[in-house]
Amino acid sequence: MKIYTTPYQYYSNIKQNVSTKPTFKAITPVETLTHCNIGMMPNGLIGKVRVMNANGKEAFLNVFKNANPLSEIYLLRDDLEQTIGLIELKIKKILDYDKLEYSQDPSHVFVDTLRNFSNPRTPYYTKGLEEYKSIGTRLMQIALKRSNEARCNGNIELIFKNGDSEKFYHRLGLKNMNGFWWNNPNKMYLPPESKESLSKMYGGL
Asked: What is the pLDDT of residues 82-124, one digit of tens each?
């Protein structure tokens, strides 16, 4: 089985430094990500996502893209350019796979890192940040959108780090990949029946 981490019009000179300010700013008015192909957009500010703050008030966060041939990073930032959330993903296109072992194309997006820096109940909390709700869900919806754009059939896989994160992913509809000796026991996947519900959570992207 040949697995390829597939680049989609990315630039090899892009640095993966998520702590610096992106140099690209959109020329056209920034909108939400609902109707755009985010994989085809250049690095920098690509749109907004709607979230809630701790008091239940609606807010919009800016989405920044930083991609190279190996991975894609999406950052959620407030208007002060403070990083609220982050997801790093890799597109795994499998062009030659065992049809007996896999009934469907196993191509997928692998979520390498997911962080909510505004949640004071996690070890990734950044002191002083305003707390926002549904950050992790919005980031996973970005991963789902990229999986569909890259013709990976909405498939997502990841390896959770601790019990609390496992519970979060279960709430999104992911399942453990148990019973297969070649898999990490912490590995999870998004089953077909959970793809639509994840895409529509909190009103979707």
From this structure: 999 999 999 998 777 666 666 677 789 999 999 999 999 888 9
Count CB atoms within 10 A of the CB of residue 116: 26
Provide the residue type at 36 as one letter. Answer: C
Cα separation, 131 vs 119, whole angstroms: 6
| Proportion of the chain above pLDDT 70, given as a percent | 79
